[in-house]
């Protein structure tokens, strides 16, 4: 039989499409022809594959060789099709047994000497193979630990083509090759702790509420007031990852090629600090072959934007939609690419170019300069920040007192309890945190009594709230109630939540 096919896969963003690598060898003018909507690097596979087979001690007779990567309407990119193409050719020649290729997904790049090189995006591909009912995956040896994270599917890590040849012919076995059962080793974290922060009890309270409900947080204050210091300690109060969350985060880093070889599983929530010179493509993802951006790399954790007003306005505006939809959709001629963007956004900024407004004794900016600086952050972007907190400068007396605040461990315990309440409340829903409550479900989860409704009616008119900022207040109040262990939102919870919208009213005017 001169025809054979091997199962492989291609990534489109975070989505995996299975690809059938078909090979047909027949008599005729010797040639090597590849079809199936291929990129340049896939077309170059012909030379790599033939040379790798020869240098592995195998011979290919001079025949007409046609390789098809099906389905033909999906763009095939990358060098990861080298190994399945080589195996399809060998199977067509009858040089390898076909039994072990049944329900087996193959992926790997070949060197000219026949070695199998590491690839990116292995984790989501193996997860898709398991979902489609495959019994095994043949992957590069350097990707074996990463692939084994999924579990309940045989992972065969191979170093060279000759090794795969011997395995398929039953000469050697890889029953447990590359399989890693326990991937929960924690990386050593840093020693940053909320206890080290002088004063700023109100700002620390705002950060606790933000993390408990996964609300976006904006901190504003003069230089040296501790905005960045506090923001960089937020990871110390983030809840620990579940195994499911860890795998989802690791998939993004796998596609981006950022996993560590020895410890591929991400066991800590990401905290991505982005410099204000970042481009739009680097922040939200993009390129001719779209890759995840910083917002996707921070998914499941925190995206920190320091010096918010220094970012290009177009870059900040590009964040508005993903902050609502919790995902990035990039449309290209070769297809749609989807990446997660389920982040908690933390931002810090000064109130003016010199940083000291509204202290007119220190501020040297003109009203025009202040207005131009503040309005680099647009009202639509500002309305997506759930909590806006002013961080005042510290006094000398506060710096002389040894920090007496709570430790990050104590704060995290309360947050974990609030998160537990939310998981129980939203069991079966599409979201798991108060920040994700939709407008249609507001009445169900954020019900107010008559006194609360009367209060919010007055607040809505006096502060000239929009529907979005009104709902933000209710969601923050819901989180405050959860931290207090209350089933219903009370007036004191609403009062505190309204207080977190006063800063934008003070500096930007109408919300």
Automatic annotation (TrEMBL):
Residues 193-398 form the Magnesium chelatase ChlI-like catalytic domain. Gene3D superfamilies: 3.30.230.10, P-loop containing nucleotide triphosphate hydrolases (3.40.50.300). Pfam families: ChlI, Mg_chelatase, Mg_chelatase_C. SUPFAM superfamilies: P-loop containing nucleoside triphosphate hydrolases (SSF52540), Ribosomal protein S5 domain 2-like (SSF54211). Residues 405-501 form the Mg chelatase-related protein C-terminal domain. It comes from the Bacteria. This is YifB family Mg chelatase-like AAA ATPase. It comes from Dorea acetigenes. The lineage of its organism: Bacteria, Bacillati, Bacillota, Clostridia, Lachnospirales.
